[in-house]
Amino acid sequence: MRIVRFLAGGRARYGVLEGETIRGLRVSPFAQSWSAGGGYVLDGSAYALGEGRLLAPCQPSKIVCVGLNYRKHAEETKLALPSAPLIFLKPSTAVIGPEDEIVLPRSWTRVDYEGELAVVIGKRAKDVPQDRATEYVLGYTCLNDVTERDIQSADGQWTRAKGFDTFAPMGPWTETEIGPDDLKVETYLNGQLRQSGRTSDLIFGIPRLVSFISEVMTLLPGDVISTGTPSGIGPLQPGDVVEVKIEGVGTLRNPVAAR
């Protein structure tokens, strides 16, 4: 099932995408009734896919990202494999949706794309054991962990480099019915393939990440875990179009603009 968040009639709401039709939901997929196993209830409204503008598929209180989580990316950066997940945060203000512009900051020198599989948390999660981690996952979406690379190097920590407004494109929806263990993750720049990897190359899988992160901080409904990027990172320029394509999920497309 593909759960979308969309704008129709001047109002943001949730729906289910069936083919080319969005059917409105009566309650949010993060409502207590949903997480308790009640499922979704349609409200009777229907919109053509082109009629309502797709928004970021959720409104996270925080985005927890994982650095250096693909073996081949570690080889690319000539860094040792981490012994525990390396996590950092992106602010909720960095979130944009499909087709929204990635806006390069005034002082940018090199801004990179990083295509990633992201996990959408469905219900409050604290101290979750690995064998129950999937119970707390609503589904999966695409995320571009946009990064100002020179600021990252200069600061020695990653908050400013990865926290600019528009630096967390997400979408186009939340896919609830896939297994995440061996999906192809690709990034295209102006139609040319630049990144390609499989989630089977992850150093720390999704159950481990949900468990590890929930020991550190409470994950709230709608929060997002971005699982890391495969090898092939590279720079963006104004006028570029970057697409993150994940097998079984969909394609997130964003143009790039100067501020």
Topology:
Elements: E1 2-8, E2 11-18, E3 21-25, H1 32-38, E4 42-48, E5 53-54, E6 63-67, H2 71-77, E7 86-90, E8 95-96, E9 102-104, E10 111-113, E11 115-121, E12 137-144, E13 147-148, H3 149-155, H4 159-162, E14 168-175, E15 184-189, E16 192-198, H5 206-216, E17 224-226, E18 234-235, E19 241-246, E20 250-258
Parallel strand pairs: 6-17, 8-14, 9-20
Antiparallel strand pairs: 1-2, 1-5, 1-14, 2-3, 3-4, 6-7, 10-13, 10-18, 11-12, 11-17, 12-14, 15-16, 15-19, 19-20
What's this, in brief?
By secondary structure, the chain is mostly beta strands.
Summarize the structure in words.
With 259 residues, the protein is mainly beta. The chain contains 5 helices and 20 strands. The chain is globular, with a radius of gyration of 17 Å.
Distance between the termini: 37 Å
Which series of helices and strands comes N to C? EEEHEEEHEEEEEEEHHEEEHEEEE
Largest sheet: 12 strands, mixed
Summed up, the helix count is 5
The Rg value, from CA coordinates, equals: 17 Å
- Could you report the average pLDDT, rounded to the nearest whole number? 94
Oligomer: single chain
Roughly how much helix do the residues carry, as a percent range? 10-25%
Helix/strand-derived category reads mainly beta
CATH class of the largest domain: Alpha Beta
Kindly give the count of domains.
Answer: 2
General form: globular
Tell me the CATH architecture of the largest domain: Alpha-Beta Complex
Q: What is the strand content? A: 35-45%
Which parts are unreliable, with pLDDT below 50 for 5 consecutive residues or more? Answer: none
CATH-assigned fold name of the largest domain: Fumarylacetoacetate hydrolase, domain 2
**Corresponding CATH superfamily of the largest domain:** Fumarylacetoacetase-like, C-terminal domain
Number of separate strands: 20
